[in-house]
Specification:
- The C terminus is likely disordered.
- The chain is elongated, with a radius of gyration of 31 Å.
- 53% of the residues lie in helices and 12% in strands.
- Strands 1-2-3-4-5 form a 5-stranded antiparallel sheet.
- The protein starts with a helix and ends with a helix.
- By secondary structure, the protein is an alpha+beta fold.
């Protein structure tokens, strides 16, 4: 028994020694300048092939986009039979709702059609057309927002907003007059519009920037809502996580406005 026990201990000891990790000494590696140059040359050739492939993919994608467009328009005709379809569809995306005031909501109630189209010749550009019927807010029957991103160099985007022809009493509220002119224009201010817009402010904004952030609201309509608007109308999409992000942004904006209000009140007290 003792001999058996001894043999077991010896075997376990040998096994333990075998399983011990062997510390390896890292060996420095390098390549010659000639090899570097060859690899760099091949890499440049691959880049050219990839660019050519991207161009072909874009060409095919655009051709299918033209095939889809008549179906999108056919789908829109069906949506027209649903009362205030686009108002509810847009509002049911929680991040879009976070960028809507009550005035935006009311104005969107007169939107009877939304159409998203790719910009011809652009790799990553699109335009969103909103069509309205008998709107008391503005005289436009069509508002177009185009968003075009550059494919080369820094991220450059060119955004063209709609020129909204507001009707009297529905135009966005103007910023408060300064204290020196407030008394002279008190009567006019009493008749001024008190309408506030966020969504339509976005819709009418134009800008061109380099290294700027992509247009989040435009991307949502283009990539999320437009694919299947009906599921948003029916409330079948769960986007609570996005809503939390929107609420955080909203709270931040409200805090800023609150601070401005306090400064204004202090100025008046002085």
């Amino acid at each position: 028994n003792f001999e058996t026990f001894y043999l077991i201990i010896v075997r376990m000891s040998k096994k333990a020694k075998i399983e011990e990790p062997v510390e390896e000494v890292e060996e420095e590696v390098s390549v010659s300048e000639e090899i570097r140059a060859k690899i760099e040359s091949i890499r440049e050739e691959l880049d050219e092939v990839n660019k050519e492939a991207d161009a072909k993919i874009l060409e095919v994608a655009r051709s299918f986009e033209q095939k889809r467009l008549p179906l999108y328009k056919k789908r829109n005709e069906v949506f027209k039979s649903i009362e205030k379809f686009w108002q509810k569809t847009l509002k049911n995306h929680l991040l879009v709702r976070a960028n809507m005031t009550d005035d935006d909501d009311e104005a969107l109630g007169f939107c009877e059609e939304v159409l998203v189209e790719e910009i011809p010749g652009s790799k990553d550009g699109f335009m969103i057309t909103f069509r309205f019927k008998n709107s008391p807010f503005f005289s436009n029957t069509e508002l177009v927002k185009s968003i075009n991103y550059s494919a080369d160099g820094p991220t450059t985007y060119v955004i063209k907003g709609a020129d909204i022809k507001w009707k009297k009493g529905y135009e966005p509220a103007k910023e408060e007059e300064t204290k020196s002119t407030k008394g002279k224009k008190r009567a006019a201010a009493a008749e001024a519009s008190t309408r506030e817009y966020i969504f339509f402010d976005w819709l009418s904004t134009s800008e061109e920037e380099e290294d700027g952030e992509r247009d989040r609201l435009g991307e949502i309509i283009h990539e999320e809502i437009w694919e299947d608007p009906l599921q948003y109308y029916l409330g079948e999409v769960d986007n609570e996580d996005e809503d939390e992000e929107g609420e955080d942004e909203g709270e931040f904006e409200e805090g800023e406005e609150s601070g401005e209000g306090e400064e204004s009140e202090q100025g008046e007290d002085d």
